[in-house]
Amino acid sequence: MDTLKKLAILSAAAKYDVSCSSSGSDRGKRKGMVGNATLSGICHSWSEDGRCISLLKILMTNVCSYDCAFCVNRRSNDVPRATFTPEEIAELTIGFYRRNYIEGLFLSSAVHTSPDYTMEKLLATVRQLRQVHRYNGYIHLKAIPGADERLIQAAGQFVDRMSVNIELPSAESLQLLAPQKQREHILQPMAQINHGITANREERRTFRRAPRFVPAGQSTQLIVGATTEDDRRICQLAEGLYRRFQLKRVYYSAYVPVVDNPKLPALTAPPLKREHRLYQADWLLRFYGFGADELLDPAQPYLDLDVDPKTGWALRNLHFFPLEINQADYAQLLRVPGIGVQSARRIVAARRMGTIHFEHLQRIGVVLRRARYFITCQGRYYGQAAFDAMAIRRKLVGTSTPAAAGEQLSLF
Ligand code: SF4
């Protein structure tokens, strides 16, 4: 099979993996090397369905010895198969890079023969790119759960980012849909990579020229909507992963109904809106000081599909509002729907110069369409609605009752 045919098969097979954002590496040009991984050298573009398309995103192989029910590449699925050699991937990458087609490589793989065999081939590929082709651009590599930790350690010295896919939110779901995968085989390399990153940071404080280890950090991907876990469970899991392993990102991938299997929900389309709300909630966990148990609780285990998670939280916690713009502290301002990190900072800075008037807020970057219901400015409320959750919801989305979130689960 020629390389182009393989490329067609293996780039199509990789499209379900969404964890390919390339932010975080700041390595510049190096003498005698090709490319760089600076932010300006790696621009992100997104396809219509929100997938990152700025990297050469391929699988090394889609020949898989596992049979994960949700996956198009599972062993029992009758699809065309192909396998790249490390040399082929290295030549493709450097060739595309020189022609300016790509800004980096995202390399994943099915489990060919065994985790160790696959990881050895992945390691050979990235080693060849760095040492033979002197490629200095961005590389994001998937670590194969269950592979020997020495292989993962060695690969970490050649790549910018590594990720281990957690795949499903619980060990029970993994057992149901991907019985050959074990939760501990996924968490163990995450812990190893985290430890390697921390140790490398320490080492480089003493020896500035010590080789880097996964300098852009690690991420993971989680499939949403293929199993029964609610959004609360997913947010709790993400929060735990950020805390335990210092992940850069958790990527949420709406389950794309690719297979007909009674263990899977009979969806007609991926739950993209749910995926979007989870990304918003994730943002609140990482940058806005929210905890998973604040955003959702046992009585409200799904994110409101009609409003963003911060607005949903505000509507359930109206006792926290209205906040006076001229007095609320930074952490309180971050809780106001329509006020982001930048606008909260600007408000705090502007208050040092004098009183803020309502007319200033739009220029500061506040989204008044949402914020006006939750603030006062110089003591005056501009909400144009009764200060009541149902009235505010009606103003915001035209209805006073939340949509039935997570509704696709009833199709099991
Ligand atoms: S290991 Fe599972 S998820 Fe990964 S390619 Fe194979 S079947 Fe798909």
Spatial shape: globular
Strand content: 5-15%
Distance between the termini: 41 Å
Strand ordering within the main sheet: 1-2-3-4-5-6
CATH architecture of the largest domain: Alpha-Beta Barrel
The unique ligands bound to this protein are: iron/sulfur cluster
> SSE order, as H and E?
HEHEHEHEHHEHEHHHEHHHHEEH
By DSSP, the count of extended strands is: 9
> Can you summarize the main beta sheet?
6 strands, parallel
Domain Radical SAM core: 48-293
Keywords: Iron, Iron-sulfur, Metal-binding, S-adenosyl-L-methionine
Protein name: Putative DNA modification/repair radical SAM protein
InterPro entries: Aldolase_TIM, DNA_rSAM_put, Endo/Exo/Phosphatase_dom_1, rSAM, rSAM_sf, RuvA_2-like
